[in-house]
Design a protein that fits this description.
Length: 233
């Protein structure tokens, strides 16, 4: 009986000690490492690889404890890919939270209205976000157009003008998909119904809008240009 008591006491004390050690690891930054470092997490990269990078860059001090905590709470599946900038020293808990929330490094780019796909490609290259040749080639590829449901229609008019935030290593396809998805989010069911009422398909509306934007860059003139085009239909 006494042996069982001491065994249970030992297990309880060991568990408390381990828990205390784990909490200290999570809430207190490493004793070494100063300055800013950047860590790149690839899409679909396993936790073990991510943790190794964090250790190699001096962001965390113990790979096993970090992995244990992440897996214990099911957080290993919630890490977002991207480029992360860490201000060392940083508690591991904050490191994990930053990656779970996807608070990485993003580049801001504003796509103005009226640009063609080629002009958007040039703007992205100027902002060091994409290769204009790869972007334009991808935008015209049959595989991509089929992927986004635009086969036989082309990309012009479907790249929604807006301010976007992309990771520094976002692929040209990722950028294109984001812009097309933004278009579809804005052009909602109500707008589709309105286009039917005037006897135009979605693609015809997009084509007409592109023609109007090419005809004039002055917003105040667009209703007049639109009326002229409608009268010709």
């Amino acid at each position: 009986m006494k042996y069982l008591f001491f065994t249970l006491l030992f297990v309880a004390l060991s568990s408390l000690l381990l828990l205390g050690f784990l909490l200290a690891f999570l809430f207190y930054p490493p004793l070494y490492g100063q300055g800013t470092v950047e860590v790149k997490v690839e899409r679909g990269e396993p936790l073990s690889s991510v943790v190794r990078k964090l250790k190699d860059h001096g962001v965390i001090s113990n790979e096993k404890l970090f992995s244990l905590w992440a897996r214990l709470w099911g957080l290993d599946k919630k890490i977002h890919w991207g480029l992360y900038r860490f201000e060392r020293p940083l508690p591991p808990r904050r490191v994990l939270n930053q990656m779970m929330l996807g608070k990485g490094v993003f580049h801001r780019i504003t796509i103005p209205e009226g640009l063609t796909a080629k002009e958007i490609a040039e703007l992205l290259e100027k902002g060091a976000l994409a290769s204009k040749d790869r972007f334009f080639a991808e935008a015209r590829s049959l595989e991509f157009l089929s992927l986004v449901g635009l086969e036989g229609k082309g990309i012009e008019g479907y790249l929604f003008p807006n301010t976007y935030y992309f990771t520094p290593f976002a692929a040209e396809r990722d950028i294109l998909v984001a812009m097309v998805e933004q278009f579809r989010e804005i052009f909602n069911a109500q707008m589709k119904e309105q286009s039917k009422e005037i006897g135009l398909s979605l693609h015809e509306v997009v084509t007409l809008a592109s023609l109007i934007e090419k005809e004039t860059g002055i917003e105040a003139e667009r209703p007049l240009v639109s009326a002229v085009f409608h009268n010709r239909l």
